[in-house]
């Protein structure tokens, strides 16, 4: 075993004033590279560590839970962290959702060292980036790429010993030509095989084809949402789909009689929204990792094994995110949050270019930004378009339109969508540093509300 497992084992032996103790250690190695105006500007690598201690203590009034986090070195700091978590549990009021830690199990890789990365992760990116710079001409390329490996170790006094190394590669590229721009984001466990010149050429072509600027008033427009746009919107839906918030009457999934809306049809399209820790393109932790308690997770659920879950099945809501506490309240199956998300339709779905060719008149939205909650009860969001609103007429992109502010709900969009295209790996632009493992289709929405013209460029 590497030093981190030994340190966690030693820290567990310092338990004194807690019935159960759980430790989560996150070892992060990351490398990044940034460019602007067709030239590299910065690059570097970092390593960091954070340990979270959770103490569970039975008391006369109920079960008390204490949570304390610490960044930095291990060794002498961990006994103090354990003491602090035990004090926090002793001082905390009884927790309504407190429970004993899950049944112990052990991953085969527990004894392995943390994963590692460095700027060598960009060896396939750099030559392609240089080629794209050389071919750019008057256009300017801006962007950022990162590769990080977060190795999570979970050790509990119950006997659980779990390890998961999460590898994430991000590539973010913008192409500018005067006041026009286009953006694309790519995510994958690694950055091998990424064709940077082809991606830059594809973005440049969207700038070259329009040939004119078009001014349009606010209003409702038929829109085509790229997979990246759909990713931003569906992530908001997923993060609002906790059973706890629904039961408490605070979300769009709440109902007046207190029931959960399981079985309700959300869309006429045969869309399935699902998560799977063993998805071949989106592998993620096969167990719950929670560093705090909220509507979606509970610290006492750390270590729960995760399984494939269908949240929406053929257009019908089949599950909300359930902790052990909410599952006991509702009698519904336990369906913890999984760190990936897939939305897919039928087998003969068209590609995005095919959807463009079948559009008489509409707007192609390629990027969304600054999404914010307006009304949690309906999941109404406001946000901005960014880096490329294209006017489509008679199956062709004929112009570039200014940016808009929009007001829309992901739930309402699903209900009104008339066509879903072929799914593809997608990166939510605004949440790309938080939730990256998504596969989404393009969507056609006939009456997307552009509430105002945005001066943003």
Automatic annotation (TrEMBL):
Pfam families: PmbA_TldD_3rd. This is Zn-dependent protease. It comes from Micromonospora echinospora. The lineage of its organism: Bacteria, Bacillati, Actinomycetota, Actinomycetes, Micromonosporales. It comes from the Bacteria. Residues 93-112 are annotated as: Disordered. Residues 218-449 form the Metalloprotease TldD/E C-terminal domain. Keywords: Hydrolase, Protease. GO terms for biological process: proteolysis. PANTHER family: CONSERVED PROTEIN, TLDD PROTEIN. GO terms for molecular function: peptidase activity.
